[in-house]
Write a structure and sequence with these properties.
The structure is a single chain. By secondary structure, the chain is of the alpha+beta class. It has a single domain, classed as OB fold (Dihydrolipoamide Acetyltransferase, E2P), CATH 2.40.50. It has 3 helices and 10 strands, in the order H-H-E-E-E-E-E-E-E-E-E-E-H. The chain has helices at about 5-25, 35-40, 175-190, and strands at about 45-55, 65-75, 80-90, 90-95, 95-100, 110-120, 125, 135-140, 145-150, 175. The protein is globular.
Length: about 190
């Protein structure tokens, strides 16, 4: 390597490494939550169907937000029947995309069990990013609800501990009624303390 290149390349590499370390230092970290944690740390826990998904720019045109309208069919904690609006950072407006890694995705018509928290402005958001969203699939014959997280890497193998499904193994469909029972148990135990 020529001497001039060595003298100019090293400062550039050091600066690039410093910028990389600085950017990763501000990365978001999310702690693992089991059903008890999700239940106790949520303001609302609901089962509902997504009615609409709408992304838009904030007034400063610096961030994209997405509002998800959910028609609540069952409330386990907090919000009653009616419509719940979730507001989350990220979305797509025109050709602009603002991604937030680990954020749950929504589409109209899907049914979900949602653990929700509210920020200081009262805006409802899914708790612990995608950890707080369980997609519900109904058995076509019996109508029984089966749940699982849709985001790869967040699939769970039981409704109490929400332990991860090991890599390479199929994600089991867990019974919605079993997850609801675990949430209810947690709420009853908390109320009796």
């Amino acid at each position: 390597m020529p001497a001039l290149l060595r003298r100019t390349a090293w400062p550039t590499l050091v600066l690039a490494a410093a910028l990389l370390l600085a950017s990763s230092a501000s990365a978001t970290s999310v702690r693992f939550l089991d059903t008890k944690d999700l239940t106790l740390e949520s303001d609302d826990i609901v089962v509902g169907e997504v009615q609409s998904v709408r992304s838009y720019w904030n007034p400063a045109h610096s961030k994209i937000f997405t509002d998800v309208e959910v028609k609540v069919s069952r409330s386990l904690k907090g919000a009653g029947p009616g419509t719940l609006t979730l507001t989350q950072l990220g979305g797509v407006v025109g050709s602009a995309r603002y991604n937030v890694p680990g954020c749950p995705m929504f589409k109209p018509g899907e049914e979900s069990l949602l653990f929700v928290w509210r920020d200081s402005h009262g805006r409802a958001q899914v708790n612990a990013l995608a950890q707080g969203k369980f997609d519900i699939h109904r058995d076509p014959v019996t109508g029984e609800g089966l749940v699982q997280r849709a985001i790869p890497g967040l699939g769970v193998r039981d409704v109490k501990t929400l332990r991860a499904v090991p890599a390479g193994q199929p994600m089991p469909r867990l019974k919605l009624d079993d997850l609801v029972l675990e949430i209810t148990r947690t709420l009853v135990l908390e109320a009796n303390q």
